[in-house]
Amino acid sequence: MNGILIIDKPDGLTSHDVVARVRRILRTRRVGHTGTLDPFATGVMVILVGQATRLAQFLDRDEKEYEAVVRFGYETDTGDRTGAKKQDFDTTTEEVNEKIRAINWENVFSQFRGETEQTPPMYSAKKIDGKKLYEHARRGETIERKSVFINISELSLIEDEPVGPLEIKLRVACSAGTYVRTLAEDIGRVVGTGAHLSELRRSRAGQFDISQAISLESLASLDDPASVLLPLSHAVSHLPKFVLPDDRVEKTRNGLSSRVSQTPFADGESLRMQDSLGSLIAIGIYDAAENTVRPKVVLV
User: Fold this and answer.
1) 157-166, 225-234, 239-248: which has the minimum mean pLDDT?
2) Can 38 be counted among the known catalytic residues?
3) What is the pLDDT of residues 84-124, one digit of tens each?
4) Which of 130, 208, 219, 243 is the most buried (most CB within 10 A)?
5) Going by C-beta distance under 8 Å and a sequence separation of 6 or more, which residues neighbour residue 276?
């Protein structure tokens, strides 16, 4: 059983929980995913089944898109609604609401769009010296973290959906590795009231969006749950295509390089190597010096 499954993750489950349930439903052990969601977050989880797990390296850096509710007035120790109140900005509810109504959000958001640096939060699964940061945080330890470069391509208000008092709803499109919780905190500090992430829903991961997703309950109710798996080729459809001559297909499966006769690709570029019928045979790397494509991940 091989393919890609787009799950609409529910509130309250860890990403590990989702993978475990998919394993039980599909009755297969070889299941993975391409991007963790916090337990309180919902939305798109790209699940890889069988040989698709070998393609994770070509998917986990894809841009993500979210709908996020930011609540103003105070920060929490986790940066989201699950944490304890950390800092009070000594403002009343009325004062916070008045500030929110008076803010020019375009001026605020413009400070965060494009390439910026962001420090990973202590309550995150990022590993330092082999240990996840949240393991340190739960023991009351603070570990020095290096800032990383992120890119926010879209940051805007979603104004057609009502939210509660003290809250705004945002659409965020960002590079992999961006912490929306940290973004919410940073916005709160610019506004001067403090803030934390109240809700988070991933609406897109790379080319896969929420319209393609299925709930765990719906998946379990199907007579043949495997019928909703997307083909392996969908995982790497964003990569340039290299069509193998018929006499090179078996050689590619054996790990041999193939010479390129069409327009050369960029040196070191990843390519999807397909046969003449469109079946995915391997992911290859273009070598400009040799003008060949070398298989990197071969699929049986």
Assistant:
1) 157-166
2) yes
3) 898 667 778 888 888 888 899 999 999 999 999 998 887 77
4) 208
5) 243, 244, 246
User: Dmax of the chain from CA atoms?
Assistant: 74
Tell me how many degrees the CA angle 234-65-123 measures, rounded to the nearest 5: 110
What the block records as the tokens of 195 is 């803030």
Pairing of strands 258-259, 195-205: unpaired
Residue 243 near residue 280, CB atoms below 8 Å: no
What are the residue ranges of helices labelled H in 67-153?
Answer: 93-102, 105-109, 133-137
Q: Which of 193, 196, 198 is nearest to 99 (CA)?
A: 193
Q: Is 289 helix (H, G, I), strand (E, B) or coil?
A: coil
**pLDDT given at position 106:** 94
Among residues 246, 283, 206, the alpha carbon closest in space to that of 51 is found at: 283
CB atoms within 10 A of CB 150: 19
Give the distance from CA 117 to its chain's centroid: 18
**The pLDDT of residue 87:** 67
Provide the β-strand partners of residue 243. Answer: 274
CA atoms within 13 A of residue 200's CA, in its CB half-sphere: 24
pTM for the complete prediction? 0.87
Of the residues 8, 17, 38, 267, only one is catalytic, namely 38
- In contact, 266 and 286? CB cutoff 8 Å: yes
Question: CA-CA distances (angstroms) from residue 193 to 71, 118, 122, 172?
Answer: 10, 20, 21, 21
Does position 8 have pLDDT exceeding 90, yes or no? yes
Tokens standing for 175?
């590079």
Q: Where are the alpha helices (DSSP H) in 27-163?
A: 93-102, 105-109, 133-137
Any alpha helices (H) in 230-283, and if so which ranges?
A: 249-253
Cα separation, 241 vs 277, whole angstroms:
13
